Hints:
Elements: H1 2-5, H2 8-18, H3 31-37, E1 41-42, E2 47-50, E3 53-55, H4 59-66, H5 85-93, H6 98-102, E4 106-108, E5 111-115, H7 116-125, H8 130-145, E6 152-154, H9 155-164, H10 171-188, H11 205-215, H12 239-244, H13 255-263, E7 282-286, E8 292-295, E9 299-303, E10 328-330, H14 333-336, E11 349-352
Antiparallel strand pairs: 1-2, 2-3, 4-5, 5-6, 7-11, 8-9, 9-10
Amino acid sequence: MIWEALTPQRRFMFSKKYGHIAELMYIPVNYFALRAIINFGDPAYGCFTFGSCDLLPTIEEYQAMLSMPQKEREIVYFFNPKQTTKRTLSKFLETVHATEIQKYIKAKGGEENVPFDYLIKMTQTYIDEDKGLTLLALCIYGAVIFPKAEGYVDRKVIKLFFQMERGVNPIIPILAETFRSLNYCRNKGEGKLNCCVPGKLNCCVPLLYIWIHSHIKFPAEFRCPRLDFSSPWNLMRNTISEFGMAVWDPTYPRKEAWLSFFAKLTSENVIWKAQWMPLKAVIYRCGDFHNVPLLGPWGGVNCTPLLVLRQVWLKQFIPPTHNLQESDFSYDPEDCQGKKTSSSMRMEIYKKDKRQRTL
Length: 359
């Protein structure tokens, strides 16, 4: 394993730039719980509704879990259909021509894909350089964070990743595909969470699973371990690693038990403020709209952080919801041709300052 062979110094360099994404490879996931949670997504409000409680993974929470540094000016991802996979990789690798890369590109589901084995080979070639760490991060994004086709990395993930190298915030695309994938599974009525099946759950399952356990207190019969996360003010904390080190009982309740529990969830079972969540400014709406648009590699969706302000150290109030509408769409390359990209459009994001509005 490439990650395990890295020296502590190289691992530190990797985590400083990309956060703790490598630890996501070792997170145990209970798929019965995830199959159950699909049924409680509310696409109109852009959140999960469990019984009388609304919960939502926010941009700031995912950023805190991954320990990604927050920038003064966040660059929003936009879909650019004109970029080619071979030229994107060739420009980065410098020593490999685009025609050579084209030999390895395969068509899967109508999309260009790069074999995972090829990227691993390139990673091993450059592992002693900064370029090698970047390729390792790309492999993790393609295999764990945005899985699409087993054994391959989707071209849109590659394009997104190299936009990240130029400053794009990856958290928004991660959340976008989380909600879109859950919506897809619920609409199809399948409840299948096989990350390697195209069109099913093309998102980061381990991260969603950690978030669920950080906000909900499960009954003793579910045999979930007690999770004691480090303080959010601990600069050396690693929330993902701490979760992975917990001792999990191999016998899990079935899907029906999880469904029954989530349906009857009350505020007494909810941990509104995750132990690892620091006090910080939050994105809670976009312009005059009461929700926030999220753009991912394959489409976009809305979420409504106004419904869950108590999760991020703010006083909760009942927000206006009369104009909230379901919004979940996939990109149509033909519609994108000849139009201005999202980078030319100004998106005004409003933030609440927690230093002034703490509970």
